[in-house]
Description:
Blueprint: H1 7-27, H2 35-63, H3 67-70, H4 88-98, H5 105-116, H6 135-145
Helix pairs in contact: 1-2, 2-4, 4-5
Amino acid sequence: MKSTKFPELRVKIKSLAAEARIIRAEEALHPRSSREHQSLSHHRREVVSREQRAALVALAFVRGVPYAAVERNPRCNRRPFDRPGPDWSRVAKLASRYGRTNLAEKQVWEAIVAWRSAVACEPKEPPAAAVMPTIGAVLRRAVRLGRCVRVAAG
């Protein structure tokens, strides 16, 4: 059975996902180099995506899900630095608005800081023998999963 807690936040997440799908469909109607396509793409990737990420992290916080389960590999000031973490101030606002708590926003902020700092930010060692799959293995897996069509030789 699906969780019925925090339905407003779940609806917000679903509506943001639908908005991203609609924008992607609109992007397809314009040439890639057009101003309209670039504007839509920027809005989808920057505005909608960041808001959706903040809402998902806020939902995990109010449900009590550990942060490590939400983002299995948090950046924690490690390379690459190109992708920032969630907008924590927005997460706090969403959690205080939809969290059904009687805490002030400052208390919610302190709880979020404690919640996210429970993640160990130590860099993990790479596996000792990282073996790259061959192109044949990758293609066989893609065919098996139905991502590409087998072409008959001859």
